[in-house]
Amino acid sequence: MASRIGEEFVPGIFVWTGFAYKGEAGPWPRKGLEISFFDYVGNKTPRGHQFESFWLNQPKVYLATIEAEKSEYQYDSEQGWLFTERTNPNKRMQWLRKWEWFNVRETWNYPANQDVIVHVYSNTDESELFLNGQSLGKQRITDDNDRILFWQLPFTAGELKVVGYNNGVKQAEYSLNTHSEVAAIKLSTNKKQLSADNYDVAHVNVKLVDKNGFTVNAQAHKVNFALSGNGQMLGVDNGWEMNVENAIKENVQSYLGKAMAIIQATDEPGNITLTVSLDNGLSSSITLISKAVTSKEGGK
C-alpha cells in the first residue's frame, strides 16, 4: 500500500512474519506457521532470502529448486511462465496460500533427468545460471513473476550455481551441490561462553555434510544429543513446521540436513560438552565454557 504526503508517495509493506511460530496450526501435523524469514530454529528461509535481496545494499543472489510437476509456475512456449495456485487438501484453508511461500528447497539432489524448476532471487542487474560450469543463460529481474527468475532443466548431478553481475562485472554467487552420504557432523554455536546464572543459553546448530563438505539435505537422519558438565538441555528441533516430535528429549530427525539444541547454563561454572551422534556411529562434540558471574554482572 502507499499513502500520499503532499506530492510524494511513501511505499510500505506488511510482512507476516519475521520468525516462524507455533499456533494457528493445522491441518495436522502442521504445528504452526512457517510463513516467515526464519524457520523455528533460525535458519533463513527462501522467503527470507527473497526479501533480503530487496533490502540489502550489497549484491545478492540465491537459488532454490522444486520438481517441475509440483511447481506453481509452468512454462508455456507462447505465453511464457504461468502461475497456477496450488490447492490445499483442506478446501476451507485455501485462503492460507495467500500467506505461504513457494514449496522450493535448497537442494540439488533429484532422480536423473527429473525436470526441475529453479527459482533465483537477485538484486543484481543480471543473473547467469551455470550447471557444472556450463552457462544456461542470463536473465534480468523485472516486476513480472514476483521478481523471480526461472529456469527449467533436467537434473544432472554436480554443481548448480547462479552468478550476479552489475554492469557486466561479477558481484555475487550462490551454489547448490549434489551430495553423497553423510561423512561428518559440523557443529557451530552463537556463543561459546555462558554466564553461570541459571539463565544464559547457547544455540548449537548441527549440519550433516558429505565427504566434500556439502550439506546432506535430501535424506533425514536421527540426530542424538548427549550433554555433560554444568549445563542442561532445554530442547531440540529441526526447524520444520511438520515436526511434531517432543522438543524436550535427546534426539530429533534432521531436516534439510540440519538440527539444533538449546543449552542452558546452571549456577555452577565449568565446561559444558555436547556430543552429537548419528545411529551410523558418526559423532562430533563441542565444548562451551560457563563462567562465574561477577558481582557487577549479577546486578543485571
Written description of the protein model:
This protein has two helices and 22 strands. The chain is mainly beta and 300 residues long. It has two domains: 46-177, Immunoglobulin-like (Sandwich); 184-293, Immunoglobulins (Immunoglobulin-like). The strands form seven sheets. A five-stranded mixed β-sheet has the order 15-22-21-17-19, with no helix packed on it. The radius of gyration is 22 Å and the shape is globular.
Q: How do you describe this structure in short?
A:
The protein has 300 residues and is mainly beta. The protein has helices at residues 46-55, 295-298; strands at 2-5, 8-11, 21-22, 32-33, 61-67, 73-76, 80-83, 115-122, 126-131, 134-139, 149-154, 159-166, 169-177, 184-189, 193-195, 201-209, 222-229, 231-237, 251-253, 258-265, 270-278, 283-291.
SSE map:
Blueprint: E1 2-5, E2 8-11, E3 21-22, E4 32-33, H1 46-55, E5 61-67, E6 73-76, E7 80-83, E8 115-122, E9 126-131, E10 134-139, E11 149-154, E12 159-166, E13 169-177, E14 184-189, E15 193-195, E16 201-209, E17 222-229, E18 231-237, E19 251-253, E20 258-265, E21 270-278, E22 283-291, H2 295-298
Parallel strand pairs: 15-22
Antiparallel strand pairs: 1-2, 3-4, 5-8, 6-7, 8-11, 9-10, 9-12, 12-13, 14-16, 16-20, 17-19, 17-21, 18-20, 21-22
